[in-house]
Automatic annotation (TrEMBL):
Subcellular localization: Membrane
Residues covered by the Band domain: 19-183
Taxonomic lineage: Bacteria, Pseudomonadati, Pseudomonadota, Gammaproteobacteria, OMG group
PANTHER family for the chain: MODULATOR OF FTSH PROTEASE HFLC (PTHR42911:SF1)
Official protein name in the record: Protein HflC
Alphabetized InterPro entries for the sequence: Band_7 (IPR001107), Band_7/SPFH_dom_sf (IPR036013), HflC (IPR010200)
């Protein structure tokens, strides 16, 4: 009987302790209720105590959650329809407000967030053109939407939106062809403008190169003429100096050079007066000073 009482006491003690002590993990956030009323809105990780059957503890995952929104159709600034598929990363930051607004239902929190994401996408896409949504300002659109959501979700739902991303943007079948044709036309126009600017720059570069060539050739010709003129002047000065030293000998050597060039070919015929001065040194000889 004594052993039975001891076992019963131990059983009751373990039962009471298991309903009195509870642990909140590092990856969890918790709130404490007393008869359904919120009495502790943010229980920190660790070992805690509660009153059995009076207090009730609700635990929630504090890690980052993913909400995959249902694809929706939105209109751009030029009234082009887009089918947008998006998702969001979020986590609980205010456990009390999260419990109050959703009763701790993660699915309800995701539905509220998805609705706000769709409303935000509708506003953001409605102020941008198709090109801006698809490529030009897509990242900025996501940043603006994330910032806009965080202005209200923390206070209303108790969650922080970490990031919002668009997985896919599709064009409806009825407008896809016309939009693609317009995009091709725009790209061709931009390409033609770039080619035109390139041709204009090329013409300017070629014209400048041609001008430089003319300038360099003119300067080279001028320098060559100056050098040639200076050479002729130097040669004339040398000849004049040599001539002034011995005029008779200079005339004699010049006549010999003339004879050599004149009679270099046996087939040449030259008709001259024998008494001509051309044969002066052949007849009379040279008198050296």
């Amino acid at each position: 009987m004594k052993n039975l009482l001891t076992v019963g006491f131990l059983f009751i003690s373990v039962f009471l302790l298991s309903n009195t002590l509870f642990v909140v993990k590092e990856t969890e956030r918790a709130v404490m209720l007393q008869f359904g009323e919120l009495v502790n809105a943010d229980i920190q990780p660790g070992l805690h105590v509660k009153i059995p059957w009076v207090n009730n503890v609700r635990k929630f995952d504090a890690r980052i959650q993913t909400e995959d929104a249902t694809p929706q159709r939105f209109l751009t600034l030029e009234q082009k329809a887009l089918d947008v598929d998006s998702y969001a990363k979020w986590r609980v930051i205010d456990v009390g407000q999260f419990y109050i607004s959703t009763r701790g239902n993660v699915t309800a929190a995701g539905s509220l967030l998805a609705q706000r994401i769709n409303d935000g996408l509708r506003d953001q896409i409605g102020t941008r053109t198709l090109i801006e949504v698809v490529a030009g300002e897509r990242d900025q659109l996501m940043l603006d939407l994330t910032s806009e959501l965080n202005e209200s979700t923390a206070a209303d739902i108790g969650i922080e939106v970490i990031d919002v991303r668009v997985k896919r943007i599709d064009l409806p079948d009825d407008v896809r062809s016309s939009v693609y044709d317009r995009m091709i036309t725009e790209r061709n126009r931009e390409a033609q403008e770039i080619r035109s600017r390139g041709d204009e720059l090329a013409i300017g570069i070629r014209a400048d190169a041609d001008r430089q060539v003319v300038i360099y050739e003119a300067e080279a010709y001028r320098d060559a003429e100056q050098i040639r003129g200076q050479g002729d002047a130097d040669a004339t000065s040398i000849y004049a100096g040599a001539y002034s030293k011995d005029e008779e000998f200079f005339a004699f050597t010049r006549s010999l050079n003339s004879y050599r060039e004149t009679f270099s070919s046996k087939n040449d015929v030259l008709l001259l007066d024998p008494d001509s001065d051309y044969f002066k040194y052949l007849k009379g000889g040279l008198t050296l000073q």
